[in-house]
Design goal:
By secondary structure, the protein is of the alpha+beta class. Helix content is about 40%, strand content about 25%. The chain has two domains: about 130 residues, Jelly Rolls (Sandwich); about 100 residues, Arc Repressor Mutant, subunit A (Orthogonal Bundle).
Length: about 250
C-alpha cells in the first residue's frame, strides 16, 4: 500500500500538490534497501526511481580506481535525476550509504509520463535538480578550498540532516572514500573533532554530540545547498541552519 501524502516522510513528495502526488501514488511500490544496494550504475539505463523514506544515498564518480562522492540525498529527495532530464543514464553511480533504507519506487517510464503531463510537477522536480546542482558545486568548492576538518564536519552535518537521531554507522574506510582522502587522515580528523566535543566516535559509529559546535567547525563550507533547498522546495535540515531558518 502506498503512503498518503500526509504521512510520507519524503519531503519532496510532501511538497507536491495533491493532484501531482495523485499522478505518482498509484505506481508506488515499497522497497526495502540495505547498505551498498545500487540505485543506478555507470552507463546503464536507469529503469527505476526511488523516493527515499529512510536512509542516506550517495552519488559517486569513479576514475583511475578511485571514487569520490558528488552528491548526497535522503528523505529530501529522489534517485535518478538523469531520468527527468531525459538522459536515461549517467557516467556516475548511486547506492545506499547509511541506514536501513526504505523507499517508494516506481518505474522511470511511469515517472516520465507524469513529469511530461504536469507543468507543476515538472517545476518541483526541476527545482530539486537545481538544489542538487548547487550541492555538487558546493562539494567541489569545499574540496578545493577547505581543510579536512571543515570538509568532514560538513559531510557529517549533511548526513545528520537526513537521518533520525544523532548516531550513524560509518567506517573510517568509507568516509575516506567519500571524501577522497587517506583513511589515516580521516582517523586523525575524527580524533580532532572528538577533542572539540562535537562528536563521539567508536568502531563503526559516529554520534553527533554537539551539532552547533560541528556547524561552527564547518563554517561557510556548509549551508548554501540547504538554503537553496529550503528556498525552492520547503523546510529541511537540523540545527541553526535547519527548518526554522526558512526564508
Amino acid at each position: 500500500m502506498s503512503p498518503s501524502q500526509a504521512t510520507t516522510s519524503n519531503l519532496l513528495l510532501r511538497s507536491l500538490s495533491s493532484d501531482d502526488y495523485a499522478l505518482l501514488e498509484p505506481h508506488f511500490v515499497r522497497t526495502e534497501l540495505a547498505v551498498g544496494d545500487i540505485f543506478f550504475d555507470r552507463h546503464r539505463p536507469i529503469e527505476q526511481v526511488h523516493f527515499i523514506e529512510n536512509g542516506v544515498g550517495s552519488i559517486v564518480s569513479d576514475g583511475d580506481g578511485d571514487q569520490i562522492e558528488t552528491g548526497i540525498f535522503g528523505r529530501d529527495g529522489m534517485t535518478g535525476i538523469p531520468v527527468i532530464l531525459h538522459a536515461g543514464e549517467t557516467p556516475q553511480r548511486s547506492f545506499l550509504q547509511i541506514g536501513k533504507g526504505i523507499a517508494w519506487t516506481l518505474s522511470s517510464e511511469q515517472l516520465l509520463r507524469a513529469f511530461d503531463s504536469s507543468v507543476t510537477l515538472r517545476t518541483v522536480l526541476l527545482r530539486y535538480v537545481q538544489a542538487m546542482n548547487v550541492q555538487a558545486g558546493s562539494t567541489a568548492a569545499s574540496n578545493a578550498h577547505y581543510a579536512l576538518p571543515e570538509r568532514l564536519a560538513r559531510w557529517l552535518l549533511m548526513c545528520h540532516d537526513r537521518i533520525d537521531g544523532d548516531q550513524m554507522e560509518l567506517t573510517h574506510q568509507f568516509m575516506s572514500i567519500m571524501l577522497a582522502v587517506r583513511r589515516s587522515g580521516v582517523t586523525v580528523t575524527l580524533h580532532t573533532l572528538e577533542g572539540t566535543g562535537a562528536i563521539r566516535a567508536s568502531r563503526g559509529l559516529i554520534h553527533i554530540a554537539d551539532r552547533a559546535r560541528l556547524e561552527e567547525i564547518a563554517g561557510e563550507s556548509y549551508g548554501e545547498p540547504e538554503r537553496e533547498y529550503r528556498r525552492l522546495i520547503g523546510p529541511f535540515g537540523k540545527g541553526a541552519h535547519g527548518a526554522a531558518a526558512v526564508r
